[in-house]
Design brief:
By secondary structure, the protein is α+β, with helices and mostly antiparallel strands. It has a single domain (3-143), classed as 2-Layer Sandwich (Alpha-D-Glucose-1,6-Bisphosphate, Chain A, domain 4). It is 26% helix and 48% strand. The chain is built from three helices and seven strands. Strands 1-7-6-5-4-3-2 form a seven-stranded antiparallel sheet, covered by helices on one side. Strand 6 (87-99) and strand 7 form a beta hairpin. Helix 1 (15-23) crosses helix 3. The mean pLDDT is 87.
């Protein structure tokens, strides 16, 4: 990934529980403010999403785009843009690191976005940071409030 923005958060749950929420695209509209619709278009031989269509409404940015997902082991997923109305590129990664005892997880989210309209690099990085921080906070809240199995 070229120029990107990155941030991390610690979630009080095992990595498998965190990845379970990340991989459950159909429920994104329930916990991410910006995602209004999510539809898995194709899955791999393990049933994990390969292509997902997302409808976003993030105020100034409204978009309908398709992302391709790559799953690396049990603790990492990355994605890249397949098609979009507003974006030129979008590359991201969630990397999960188990912490002491495996009941806590550090989640690192990396994101690089390029829009079709011209934006100053500084404004683009700030927008990426807002997207990352909101996503991590939403993920933490969703995972930690989920009933334990």
């Amino acid at each position: 990934m070229a120029e990107h923005t990155s941030s991390s958060i610690t979630i009080e749950a095992a990595p498998a529980d965190v990845m379970g929420v990340i991989a459950d695209f159909a429920r994104y509209p329930e916990w991410t403010g910006e995602v209004k619709e999510a539809e898995v278009l194709s899955t791999d031989d393990q049933g994990r999403a390969e292509q997902v269509r997302l409808v976003l409404d993030a105020g100034a940015i409204k978009d309908d785009h398709v992302l391709a997902y790559t799953w690396t082991g049990e603790n990492e997923v990355s994605w890249s843009l397949v098609k979009s109305q507003m974006l030129r590129s979008l590359d991201g990664t969630y990397a999960l690191t188990p912490l002491a005892g495996g009941e806590r997880t550090e989640v690192t989210y990396r994101l690089a976005v390029d829009v079709k309209i011209p934006l100053l690099g500084m404004i683009k990085r700030k927008a990426e940071k807002v997207i990352i921080d909101r996503a991590l906070a939403g993920l933490k809240k969703r995972v930690e409030s989920a009933p334990k199995a």
